[in-house]
Amino acid sequence: MISATSISADDSKPLRIALVDDDIEDKVLVESTLRSIADFEYELIWISDTERADLLLLRAAPDVCLLDYWLGGSTGLDVMERLKIKELDFPVLLLTGTHDRAVDLEAMNRGVFDYLVKGEITPALLERSIRYALHRHQLEQQVRDLSLRDPLTGLSNRRFFEEALVYAARRSARRDRSFHVIVIDVDQFKQINDKHGHAAGDKVLIEVGERLRRQVRATDVVARIGGDEFAVILEEGEQHLNLTEALDRMRNEMQFSLTLSDGGQPLAINVSIGLASSLQAEESPSGVVARADRAMYEAKRLRKIAS
């Protein structure tokens, strides 16, 4: 938590402040104001390349961003518009030369946390604005995390999965790479609930979630998207992703025995798994999920025939 006396996102490190501004005089003004704030450690990252400001900001990963309104042939609000389709994980304060209510309102609608007039910025005002932005951003992140988390398994929920799916599709299109969706469904889950009770069913879901989490990379998305249905989003990175090997590991991990608290015979747990990869640029992300879902049901059908 950010305390009332702390301005830092992490008290053990200097605050990383990105300044997006193509005017050296503005940079000098901001630096001078920051230096005047007592007991304040910071690292200023100056981004003067306004054409690539959104990409450079995401790469810099600041704690807070000071964004100038006038940026050569564009505005800071244009940068905010481009940032909206990416994962923005820091608050933004807009700097401008004059009072303009229309700009102020538009800035707030674009996700800007505060609006500061450069000629009126004092060390106390800048400190207060940064502290407020960091605190509000943290609270919003906490609320968002609660709304996007499955309370039983601790995994992401369907809402987060659907948002992440859109981002994965956009990133993959930009990089000309595929992304992959795996859908996992617990076999005979209804019978487990009916015979052993919902507490036993919950224990199975928690264990499946834990095992899935262990089988994926930190960058992959694992979600519980339905009662006994889970999904994983895997994106191609710089290194080749061996899907066959990943699926084999997952299948092996997902076949296990679970001892219940009643001391009875351990339950044999199996799952059905379906995989689909993005193939065509015109296919919607939900179309990839639908193919993975069909593949999962086909795997379930074949398992029933084999048994």
Automatic annotation (TrEMBL):
Q: What reactions does this protein catalyze?
A: 2 GTP = 3',3'-c-di-GMP + 2 diphosphate
Q: Which residues carry this modification: 4-aspartylphosphate?
A: 68
Give EC number(s), comma-separated.
Answer: 2.7.7.65
Q: Which GO terms describe its molecular function?
A: diguanylate cyclase activity
Enzyme class (EC, first level): transferase
One Pfam assignment:
Response_reg
UniProt domain GGDEF: residue ranges: 177-307
- Enumerate the InterPro entries for this protein: CheY-like_superfamily, Diguanylate_Cyclase, GGDEF_dom, Nucleotide_cyclase, Rev_trsase/Diguanyl_cyclase, Sig_transdc_resp-reg_receiver
GO BP terms: phosphorelay signal transduction system
Q: What keywords appear on the UniProt entry?
A: Phosphoprotein
Q: Which NCBIfam families match?
A: GGDEF
In Swiss-Prot or TrEMBL terms, this protein is called diguanylate cyclase
Native organism is Limibacillus halophilus
